[in-house]
């Protein structure tokens, strides 16, 4: 069963939880039949029957989401560095949704740099449906894990940190 896994990490990102359960026809049009949604500390917990076109499973937290990522055909993640790195490490196509409501929008910088390097697509909740319809997952390049210095340099570059 073709599966999408959505994670908000330990945060609250109700807008993503609401938005991803609405464009279910975009998910269905891409052949996805199952949506696994991790809602974290959010106040929105969609009912299992709220998406009649796809099978919806919702949870707040687990000790590990590695198995959910492993089983997914597509990972949709908030733009937290830890969640993005874990998703990239799983070797699955990644769509990063930036929370543009945050005051210090460092998430946009990280998502943009990952996209420039062809590791993911990114969008906001307002452009999620269009991005799902138009993205070409075949252009994504794998992120090579296991090089902490390269990742640290990447984060410095993405966040605009100047080295002395």
TrEMBL record:
Alphabetical keyword list: Endoplasmic reticulum, Glycosyltransferase, Transferase
A Gene Ontology biological process term: dolichol-linked oligosaccharide biosynthetic process
Family named by the database record: Belongs to the glycosyltransferase 28 family.
Subcellular location: Endoplasmic reticulum
Glycosyltransferase among keywords: yes
Name of the protein this chain belongs to: UDP-N-acetylglucosamine transferase subunit ALG13
Alphabetized PANTHER family for the sequence: GLYCOSYL TRANSFERASE-RELATED, N-ACETYLGLUCOSAMINYLDIPHOSPHODOLICHOL N-ACETYLGLUCOSAMINYLTRANSFERASE
GO CC annotation, single: endoplasmic reticulum
GO terms of molecular function: N-acetylglucosaminyldiphosphodolichol N-acetylglucosaminyltransferase activity
InterPro entries: Alg13-like, Glyco_trans_28_C
Record EC number: 2.4.1.141
Source organism: Labrus bergylta (ballan wrasse)
All copies of domain Glycosyl transferase family 28 C-terminal, residue ranges: 3-135
Signal peptide: none
């Amino acid at each position: 069963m073709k599966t999408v896994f959505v994670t908000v990490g330990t945060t609250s990102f109700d807008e993503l939880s609401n938005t991803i359960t609405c464009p279910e026809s975009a998910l269905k049009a891409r052949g996805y039949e199952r949506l696994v949604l991790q809602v974290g500390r959010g106040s929105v917990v969609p009912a299992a029957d709220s998406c009649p076109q796809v099978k919806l499973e919702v949870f707040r937290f687990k000790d590990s989401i590695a198995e959910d990522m492993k089983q997914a055909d597509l990972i949709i993640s908030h733009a937290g560095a830890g969640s993005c790195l874990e998703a990239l490490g799983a070797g699955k196509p990644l769509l990063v949704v930036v929370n543009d409501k945050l005051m210090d929008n460092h998430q946009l910088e990280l998502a943009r740099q990952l996209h420039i390097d062809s590791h993911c697509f990114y969008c906001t909740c307002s452009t999620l449906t269009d991005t799902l319809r138009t993205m070409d997952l075949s252009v994504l390049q794998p992120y090579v894990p296991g090089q902490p210095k390269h990742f640290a340099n990447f984060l410095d570059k993405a966040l605009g940190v100047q080295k002395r």
